[in-house]
Specification:
Radius of gyration of chain A: 18 Å
Order of helices and strands of chain A: EHEHEHEHEHEHEEEEHEEEHH
Shape of chain B: globular
Order of helices and strands of chain B: HEHEEHEHEEEEEHEHEEEHEH
Strand order of the largest sheet of chain B: 2-1-5-10-11-12-13-14
Helix content of chain B: 25-40%
Structural class of chain A: alpha/beta
Number of strands of chain B: 14
Oligomer: heterodimer
Helix content of chain A: 25-40%
Number of strands of chain A: 13
Number of helices of chain B: 8
């Protein structure tokens, strides 16, 4: 049975300097509350894994948490650049950031391979693209049956997966509804997992249904974090704060405004971004 | 509302929207492609199937999403599938007839760069990267592209091939055994381009009303060729303009921004 604890306790006990950590959530259910706690506790030299490092990883990279980023799309969706990610890559601020870059198809397959206990994923990818020339972890193999050239990437096996979900029951079974992304795969491929939830209820109400339910024995720790995905969203609870995603562009563009914002809203704030 | 005047951006989105039909199953990129695809659905092709990489299949948003995973995409979709399934069964499985893409750079063969400007290890500008685009480019039946036409974007050689068009020479798809058609249409704010049947190089097949071939030459970073008979794009009709402007106004109100998301 998972431990029910605070977000601070979960981060303190389960995430260590140097760990590989996947905070997942595909636009929806991004675990901001947990990410902000990682920043507050000053974790360093993390390998951050995420298909779409958006504002949360911009904040974690700018705050100096990350040594390496494994990703497939690093932007502010519909708005533009992630300025802190760019500053780290283009000017090594606040420290150099090693990149392991993939496509979405590769990352999705690598998560599925990790969850399946496979050493790598095979798929039909990267044909004619330049990424295999700059990422030595993309390799090509022949199908033993057809001879077709297929792509292989190593399975993802993070130390810790961190996700946000709508609710858990008192045993620790977790419900995810809406755009479900790769969260199930991220939890199942990781050594440890932290799930923050909007609320804990008597009955998550999915028995026999086909929403994503993670059984309690797949989860290490559960922490209640109301609005813990804001400015991302929790289907059925609150909407995506698109105005904040637009506003972030100006905040993050400049190191001083970024640092001041983080100081006020994350380091000394309640963790929410409003 | 006056419909006599329209902007180059409106002409571009409307011309791009005309390329889709009811039978298409379209993988939609965010920004300009998303505007064109939803305009098609709201005007001439109400049954077109729009798919976003967040897993939403046959979605019918009332405003343009800011991200590929806005809540409304899920709420109005026929079904929402996990992201692994989206890339395995639906995209790689060959179920999608059109991929609608944009990019930061394009060359004459429709190769797209959304990764870096400059060298990969020492980039002048670090762009977002592939997202779904790398496999969309080779797994969808055909690729339509919509981009603003300027010399910084329309370059002789893309700095990085994020998404394969017809390759550096125009022959790479055949050489790699790729059976999908690749880039079949390029719509800009100046003109419509289609690949030459033989060389696969994009050539201008229609100019938007009031645009000269000289303007296209000046805004293209390679020596651009024109079809033997260059047509003129039909101007936006009042209905197309009205629906597009309503969509953009709803979108601006919904996202608290001054204009449509791009």
């Amino acid at each position: 049975m998972p431990v029910f604890c605070t977000v601070a306790d979960a981060v303190r006990d389960l995430i260590h300097d140097g760990d590989s950590v996947a905070l997942e959530g595909f636009t929806h259910l991004i675990p901001y509350a947990a990410g902000h706690e990682i920043i507050r506790q000053g974790r360093r030299n993390l390998t951050l894994i995420r298909m779409t490092p958006d504002l949360l990883y911009d904040q974690m990279i700018g705050a100096g948490c990350a040594r390496k980023l494994i990703f497939s799309w690093g932007g502010n969706p519909g708005v533009g650049s992630l300025h802190r990610l760019r500053d780290a890559v283009e000017r090594q601020w606040p420290q150099p950031l090693e990149l392991e870059e993939h496509s979405h198809a590769a990352m999705a397959n690598a998560y599925a391979a990790g969850a399946s206990g496979m050493p790598c994923a095979f798929f039909r990818g990267y044909r004619g693209a330049d990424l295999p020339q700059v990422n030595p972890r993309i390799k090509f193999v022949s199908c033993p049956f057809s001879g077709e050239t297929l792509t292989a990437v190593p399975a993802l096996r993070p130390d810790v997966a961190v996700i946000h979900a709508q609710k858990a029951d008192r045993e620790g079974n977790v419900l995810i509804e809406g755009i479900v992304g790769v969260q199930k795969e991220a939890v199942l491929c990781s050594k440890r997992s932290i799930v923050t939830v909007e609320e804990v209820v008597d009955d998550i109400g999915t028995r026999g249904g086909n929403a994503v339910a993670l059984p309690y024995w797949t989860v290490t720790a559960i922490a209640v974090a109301p609005r813990g995905a804001h400015p991302s969203y929790a289907h059925g609870y609150y909407a995506r704060d698109n105005a904040f995603y637009v506003a972030w562009d100006a905040i993050a563009k400049d190191r001083a405004t970024f640092t001041a914002w983080m100081d006020r809203h994350v380091l000394h704030g309640g963790g929410d971004t409003q | 509302m006056s419909t006599a005047a329209y902007s180059p951006a409106e002409m571009m989105t409307i011309a791009a929207s005309r390329a889709l039909c009811n039978d298409d199953v379209c993988f939609v990129g965010i920004g300009l492609p998303s505007a064109a695809c939803n305009l098609a659905r709201l005007t001439h092709s109400p049954r077109v199937t729009l798919i976003y990489e967040s897993g939403t299949i046959a979605t019918r948003p009332s405003v343009l999403p800011l991200s590929i995973g806005d809540g409304e995409l899920c709420e109005t979709a026929l079904t929402t599938v996990p992201v692994v399934e989206m890339f395995q069964y639906w995209l790689q499985g060959g179920r999608i007839s059109v991929g609608f893409l944009g990019g930061a750079q394009i060359d004459r063969y429709g190769n797209l760069n959304s990764t870096v400007i400059g060298a990969y290890d020492k980039p002048k500008v670090r762009l977002p990267g592939s997202g779904g685009a790398t496999e969309i480019a080779t797994s969808c039946g055909r690729i339509f592209i919509v981009m603003r036409h300027n010399p910084r974007a329309f370059v002789a050689k893309v700095d990085f091939i994020t998404s394969l068009g017809h390759g550096r020479t125009g022959r790479e798809r055949r050489d790699l055994g790729i059976e999908t058609a690749g880039p079949a249409l390029l719509v800009t704010d100046l003109c419509v381009m289609r690949p030459d049947a033989e060389t696969k190089e994009f050539i201008v097949t229609a100019l938007h009303p009031g645009i000269t071939s000289e303007q296209v030459r000046q805004n293209t970073g390679w020596v651009v060729r024109f079809a033997e008979s260059v047509g003129e794009t039909a101007p936006p009709d009042p209905y197309e303009l009205e629906v597009l402007r309503d969509l953009n106004a709803r979108t601006a109100r919904a996202h608290g921004t001054a204009g449509p998301a791009e």
